Amino acid sequence: MMIELKRTSSEDTDFETLTGLLDQDLERRYPGTRDFFQPLNKIKLDAKAVVAYEDGKPVGCGCYREAAEGQTVEIKRMYVLDENRGRGIAGQVLRELETWAKEAGKKRAILETGRGQPEAIALYTKSGYAEIDRYAPYTDREDSVCMGKDL
Q1: What's the whole-number average pLDDT of the chain?
Q2: Which of 116, 140, 147, 151 has a Cα at 20 to 30 A from 124?
Q3: Band (41; pLDDT cuts 50, 70, 90)
Q4: What domain of life is recorded for the organism (predicted)?
Q5: pTM to 2 decimals?
Q6: DSSP alpha helices (H): ranges in the chain?
Q7: Is residue 141 part of a domain?
């Protein structure tokens, strides 16, 4: 089956549906952390989103937004439906986000994930990301893992 990638915005209804499922997944993995993370997961309207489709059905997503440093983006809201995992979809979404960021003149990507998401850490490591110091607002979050990569 072929995966189609669509560049879109954070207002895309398929992106919103998938990130709603992501929020449910994160609540199961990290009970009681919603109050801390929910405001951080609000996506600004200028975010660049990618939605992955299989046979016309949205199966995965991710986005990036400008980070504090001018030529850096922060990868956010990466998610693939449970039944579609393990087939390389998240890697395709991530590569598309990196390509889009490079086209926009960005030089570096950073991200935050959690220790309760070993599959995400494995994806990012395989994709060339390395652990970096936790950045704000995750500095004091022991369960947070921050990673970065030069594009």
Answers
A1: 91
A2: 140
A3: low
A4: Bacteria
A5: 0.91
A6: 13-29, 34-37, 89-103, 118-126
A7: no
- Burial status of residue 89 (CB atoms within 10 A of its CB: 0-12, 13-18, 19 or more): buried
Is 149 contained in some domain?
no
- pLDDT of residue 74 exceeding 70: yes
Q: Which helix (H) or strand (E) holds 54?
A: strand 48-54
Distance between CA 116 and CA 121 in Å, rounded?
9
When pLDDT is cut at 50, 70 and 90, the band that residue 112 belongs to is very high
| CATH number, domain with residue 8 | 3.40.630.30
The DSSP 8-state label assigned to residue 43 in this structure reads: P
Is 52 part of any domain? yes
Average pLDDT value for residue range 4-11: 95
Overall domain count for the chain = 1
